[in-house]
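Input/output pair, single chain:
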Amino acid sequence: MLVLGVDPGLTRCGVGVVEGSAGRPLRMAGVGVVRTPSDADTAQRLLAVERGLEEWLDRHRPDVVAVERVFSQHNVSTVMGTAQASAVAMLCAARRGLPVVLHTPSEVKAAVTGSGRAEKAQVGAMVARLLRLAEPPRPADAADALALAICHIWRAPALGRLQAAAARQTSAAGSATGGAPGRLPGRAAGRPRSRKGSST
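Output:
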C-alpha cells in the first residue's frame, strides 16, 4: 500500500509518502512541504496548495490519501486556514477517485508513539526510527505528514474489519425488516378466518 499523508496548512502543508503494510517494514517514498506566502490572497494560496498536491499525486500515484482531521483551536483564523487546505487535499484525491481517510492528531500520535499526548519531537523521532532515517524530517509539518501515512497503514486492517462488520449488520437489519413475501398484514399464520353465523 502506498499512502500519501497530508498535514494541512496554508503557510506550510506537509506531504509525506510511505509504502508498506501492517507488520512489515515501512519505506519512505518522499517527503516535503507545499508553501504559500502569508501575505497572498487566500484564494491564490489555496490554488497554490492544490497545484502542489497535484504534483505529488502525479509523481507518486498513491493508493489512498490520509489527511489530518481538523479539530477546534483557540485561534479561529488558523483553524479556518487548516480546514480550507484540508478540503483542497480531499478534493484533489476525490477528483482522481482515490479514497480519503481522516485521522485525528491523537490517533496519529497513539499509532506512532503509543501515546495520544506525545509531543511533536517524540512523533518526529519515532517517524525517523520507523522509516530508518538519519534524523527527523524538517519542518515538523513534513514529519507529521509521514506520521499520518504510517498511522493509516497500521490502522487500515482494523478499519477494514470494522467497515465489513458494519456492512454485514446493515444487510442483516435490512433482511429482518423485509418480512416474508405474500403474507397479508394483520393476520397470524395458520389462524382460520371466522365465519358469521356459525354455531358455537
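Residues 2-157 form a domain with the Nucleotidyltransferase; domain 5 fold (CATH 3.30.420.10). The chain has one domain: 2-157.
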